Amino acid sequence: MDRTALAVVSAGGVLGALTRWAISVTWPGTVWTTWAINVSGCFLIGVLYTRVERRIPRLLIGTGFLGGYTTFSTAMVEVSVAGLVYLAATLTGCLLAVLAGSLLARR
For a Cys staple, 65 with which of 10, 12, 50, 70, CB 3.0–4.6 Å? Predict the structure, then answer.
C-alpha cells in the first residue's frame, strides 16, 4: 500500500467534501446547486489533467479534492426529481466543462 498516496487522496477528499457541503448549505434546496458543483469540478479536472503531470498533485487535487467535491451519485438521485432534462444537462454540461478547462489550460 502506498501510504503517501492514501494520505493525499484522503486529505483532498475531506477538503473537497467540505467545500461541496459549504456550497450546498449556502445555496440549498435545488438540484441546480449539485449541477453547478459538478460542472465546475469537471472544468477544474480538465485544467488539472491538462496542466499537471506529477502524480502526487493529481492524486491530491484530482482524485482527492475533486473526487470529494463532485457528487455524481447525488446527481443521479436527483434525476428522479428533476427528470431527463436534468440528466442531459448534467452529462452535457460536465463533458463541455472538461473540454473547456482543457482547452483553456492549453493556452
Answer: 12
pLDDT at 25: 94
pLDDT for the residue 102: 97
Alpha-carbon distance 56 to 73, whole Å?
25
Tell me whether residue 87 is exposed, middle or buried, using C-beta atoms within 10 angstroms of its C-beta: 0 to 12, 13 to 18, 19 or more. Answer: middle
Classify residue 2 as exposed, middle or buried by CB count within 10 Å of its CB (0-12, 13-18, 19+).
exposed
Match 428533476 to its residue by C-alpha cell: 82
In sequence order, what are the residues at sequence separation of 6 or more whose Cβ sits closer than 8 angstroms to the Cβ of residue 14? Answer: 68
Which residue type occupies 36?
A: A
82, with CB counted inside 10 A (0-12, 13-18, 19+), is middle
Instruction: Classify the C-alpha dihedral 54-3-20-33 as positive or negative.
Output: positive
- Write out the E strands in the chain: none
33 CB neighbour count, 10 Å cutoff = 18
